[in-house]
């Protein structure tokens, strides 16, 4: 069975909702805000292995997205720009041909999605589009996937962010329903394991 790789534009970690979620996760591992603020301003904060934190976070993001959409996307890697002037982090993910074709059939029938692509793919001052309109976009599977998931995330990003807050809050305690299948064995998420610091 074939697969297609594509970039998922989830918002990145540069002064974003996701960096706030991570900081809140760190904050919740301290007794109070005073302790957190002291840590935040210390050398220990800078020693956090941010590459590992961001990669683990992206894996959780993909798990939640799979749950929300009943898909089986695979996390490949996190692509981060050298500079954040014009772009931000993107998740490189993989989808099976079967799941892609199912989404393609569904969304190409949607007038709302077609209108979204036609509007979003237009050239404008300072930007020249290489894929102008739905006909050009759908001719390239990877580009179509980018537009489909950008469109999907417009409606479910708030739910995903809520789940991410909950996961980093460690609210999945024994006896509660665990929503994310791949975290079925976790009774209480250990924030300290995710935010490893250099010894």
Question: What can you tell me about this protein's structure?
Answer:
It is a single chain. With 199 residues, the chain is mostly helical. The chain contains 9 helices and 3 strands. It has helices spanning 17-27, 33-40, 43-46, 50-69, 97-108, 111-120, 134-137, 141-169, 191-194; strands spanning 3-8, 74-79, 90-96. Strands 1-3-2 form a 3-stranded antiparallel sheet. Helix 1 runs parallel beside helix 8 and helix 4 packs across helix 8 (141-169). The longest helix has 29 residues, at 141-169. The radius of gyration is 19 Å and the shape is elongated.
Summarize the structure.
By secondary structure, the protein is mainly α. It is 51% helix and 10% strand.
Supply database-style keywords.
single chain; 199 residues; three-stranded antiparallel beta sheet; 3 strands; disordered C terminus
CA-based gyration radius: 19 Å
pLDDT average, as an integer? Answer: 79
The number of strands is: 3
What is the makeup of the main sheet?
3 strands, antiparallel
Give the overall shape.
elongated
Structural class: mainly alpha
Number of helices: 9
Spans of at least 5 consecutive residues with low confidence? 171-199
How far apart are the termini?
Answer: 44 Å
Strand content: 5-15%
Order of helices and strands: EHHHHEEHHHHH
Order of strands in the sheet with the most strands? 1-3-2
Q: What helical percentage do the residues reach?
A: 40-55%
